[in-house]
Specification:
By secondary structure, the chain is mainly α. The protein is 65% helix and 2% strand. Belongs to the UbiA prenyltransferase family.
């Protein structure tokens, strides 16, 4: 984790990072020794061995767990919450919901996102511990370095799942219906850490995981975006919601591909798959095409929902412009530069889309 997003330094010249021994060697290091070392900049990029001032208010025994769940900077949590927020505001616009209903849904969803984020990152690090131990940026995350045992991480993750389930009961429609709506996200999130072993498209899997939050945001507002036809046996998703979900998934694919470029050289040597590994020097061409697709999907979502100028100006125009700036300026050969744009750029695009929907609601 970084010391603070605001404290991130300006991008530096490209660096080449070496591969370290596998987990069985790295795990022999003592946590106390590692925590006392000053982490390099790659380890502050969600490397799992940073101790910023924000985390120092907590007991020292909590630190490895706070590092495990990427508590600071809160980019990981907010990247999960943003799509849910899009769904809440989209549903509020179409149902003319009261501000009180929007606030209540947002509070419950934010709590659910907190527990889901914790559980997902714990699961991801459990599955990836051996791979993480071979990559410079991630080799000192709590599990590879031995600060948290796999058993302790599994038990901790189970408590976070329980917290998410309890908040799921607070949504409309009851636990079983809410659970059915959450099932696609649960399956894709469980599979995500394995995707990098099977396919060069883990960013697409992650994009779906995050974008499904739009659907859960709609559900939190009492809207059922899925419909079932007994006559045909078909399940369909509301077209406007489908466009918003798909557009959000493409946004996630873009910024996570930039994130993946942080570890490109290490991933090539270790054998980890990603869009960054697949595309390499051609990444920006594909990212520009993805941006065009995202813009078109946001336009179509607005058209199908009958949205007006605030949405098109802020959400479509602002979101596309900020993401275009990110693609144009990021240096994919520089790990720290990729982190800077990832950890800052998501605020601009997610904030623009959210502000466009909020302005339309108001």
């Amino acid at each position: 984790m970084s010391k603070s997003i605001t404290a991130l330094r300006q991008p530096r010249a490209p660096e080449t990072h070496s591969i370290v021994p596998r987990r069985d060697t790295a795990a022999k290091e003592q946590p106390e020794t590692i925590l006392s070392e000053r982490p390099s900049h790659v380890q502050t990029q969600y490397g799992g061995n940073d101790n910023p001032g924000v985390l120092q208010v907590f007991p020292p025994a909590w630190l490895p767990y706070l590092q495990l769940v990427r508590l600071w900077p809160p980019a990981a949590l907010l990247l999960i919450f943003f799509p849910h927020g899009f769904g809440i505001l989209h549903a509020a616009i179409r149902t003319q919901a009261s501000l009180g209903d929007v606030v209540r849904a947002s509070i419950v969803i934010f709590g659910g996102c907190f527990f889901c984020s914790n559980a997902a990152h714990t699961w991801n690090d459990l599955v990836d511990a051996r791979l993480d131990a071979q990559v410079e940026r991630t080799r000192r995350r709590p599990i590879p370095r031995g600060a948290i045992t796999p058993t302790a991480a599994l038990l901790f993750g189970a408590t976070q799942v329980l917290g998410a389930v309890l908040l799921l009961t607070c949504l409309p429609f009851g636990l079983w219906v809410n659970g059915l709506y959450a099932t696609p996200n649960i399956i894709s999130t469980s599979y995500y850490p394995f995707a990098k072993r099977h396919t060069h498209l883990p960013q697409l899997v992650l994009g779906f995981c995050l974008a499904w939050g739009v659907v859960m945001g709609e559900v939190a507002m009492g809207v059922q975006p899925l419909s079932y036809s007994p006559q045909t046996g078909e399940v369909s998703l509301d077209p406007s919601v489908f466009c918003l979900v798909t557009g959000t998934a493409v946004w996630a694919l873009i910024y996570d591909t930039i994130y993946a470029h942080q570890d490109l050289q290490a991933d090539l040597r270790v054998g980890i798959k990603s869009l960054a590994v697949l595309l390499q020097e051609r990444s920006k061409i594909v990212l520009w095409l993805a941006l065009a697709l995202m813009t078109g999907l946001l336009v179509q979502a607005g058209r199908l929902s009958g949205l007006g100028i605030p949405y098109y100006f802020l959400a479509v125009g602002g979101g596309s412009a900020s993401l275009g700036l990110m693609i144009w300026r990021v240096n994919l050969r520089d790990s720290q530069n990729c982190w800077w744009w990832f950890s800052n750029g998501f605020w601009w695009t997610g904030g623009a889309i959210g502000m466009g929907l909020l302005a339309e609601y108001c």
